[in-house]
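Lab notebook, bench 4. Still working through the backlog of constructs that have no structural model yet. Next entry is a single chain of 215 residues. Request: give me the structure tokens for it.
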Amino acid sequence: MVSTDDGVEGFGEISMIWDGNGFLQCHFVNEVFRPALLGEDPTAINRCLRRLDTRIERGWPARAAVEMALFDVAGKALNTPVYNLLGGRSRESIVLSHSIAIDAPVEMARAAARYVAESGGLTNASLIFRMAEAVGVPCLIGAMPELGIGTAAAVHLGVAMTNLNDPCDACGVIYHVAEITNERLEVREGRIWPPTGPGLGVTLDRQALERYRAA
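Model written out:
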């Protein structure tokens, strides 16, 4: 979380499922990035990101989470959704893909039908999109999968990018039974919509966060 002197709070999410070093990433946030940003203007995102540049290996998930929170603060301060800070909305929603467990063909088909029925850093990611667009290469969005904060950020990015190729895996929220945000992203007919409130458009469910907090 990034908070301002005016009481504006921005939220980010460290999303990782492969190497399980979440405690290390939290250490980067608290001990490396927090001192670097104290007293800075959180709406000056590029300046803040320069202060987060580090040679510490494997600190990118932490950096992405702090950047996510900075965009959330900036959007709330300006009373506008994050997708407007990324260039404006180029589409209303994102077509989703979904991972299906290997099974008998009939069961896989049933799972696919069920999902259709139910149905990481923003600055660097948008830069990659634009570099790829310059040479005619479309891009996709993958997932770790994230909870509500990270998924909201991915969807804001997706609807702002003009060379997004469908479908995308920005559907982390549908993999989880529990959630730590008060809002639920709109998912229907194989598509996901970004929250329309200021910033990322989601707020933290602090009671849920306490329930799942690691000791």
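Notes after review: The mean pLDDT is 84. The chain has eight helices and five strands. Flag for follow-up if needed.
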